[in-house]
Amino acid sequence: xxxxxxxxxxMGAPMAxxxxxxxxxxxxxxxxxxxxxxxxxxxxxxxxxxxxxxTMLPDGKVLQAVAAQIHPAMQQGAVHLDCSTVDVDSARxxxxxxxxxxxxxxxAPVSGGTVGAANGTLTFMAGxxxxxxxxxxxxxxxxxxxxxxxxxxxxxxxxxxxxxMILGVTMIATCEAFxxxxxxxxxxQAMFDVxxxxxxxxxxxxxxxxxxxxxxxxxxxxxxxxxxAAELMLKDLRLSQTAAVAAxxxxxxxxxxxxxxxxxxxxxxxxxxxxxxxxxxxASRQRP
Length: 288
Ligand code: NAD
What we know:
The chain is of the alpha/beta class.
């Protein structure tokens, strides 16, 4: 397959490198110039003649700007596969523009982070026509271990932000419970042994335990170096709240998690730390 890959940052560069082992990949990024990839001089040049154009960009505004450059250059029937995490409205607008030009569009944000991108073990949650999803399935199989078709355009982004809203809320709940347990004199190992096998269990404690030295190895064991950075969690929580406002959905815990991560990243010491560093934050605080 002939692939254009636009946005060669922390995620895009390793994803493109994995695809280039099996397909003809031409990349573009205004800043990053990975040495192991054939590069074009513009996004439009990378998109011309491609069967599939993949974008991996910071946000919906950049996605819309790049889509306006690449869609006119793409050949009829080609697929625009956007793997960025963006707002649902931008994903749906870009899909509608693609369709109007005779292109196919799939929004397929990922989970798995930079390690998953490097190892080809990402999970994709995809929205868009089933036929387009099937067409890019072989690429999902190279870049990832699982791809779920979630329905129409924008539904991939919807699935991603709903999942990450649950993750943000359960991580905060787990961290505040550990901090309460500390103050009640409960040993962290005992707390883990009980909760991880009881009704308080979740991925946040069982697979990504925020307490150092307890449970499986996680960023807590590496001084809370990300991992999944608190600012990326804040980005996804904000997207969940933008979507909740637009859809008139009541999400009080999502809103509280967004406010806590905003304080943590923007007025405390959370920037550059893993999102599980909420545990030392709560452990060092008193009741307001
Ligand atoms: P990044 O900032 O490292 O990479 C983004 C790249 O886009 C940069 O290299 C930048 O130069 C490029 N870019 C910006 N404007 C451009 C333009 N007009 N044309 C072409 N390229 C342009 O970000 P990242 O960590 O690679 O994340 C990419 C996306 O994946 C984001 O939407 C992010 O939320 C999502 N994501 C990231 C992670 C993670 O762990 N890093 C995990 C899951 C999802």
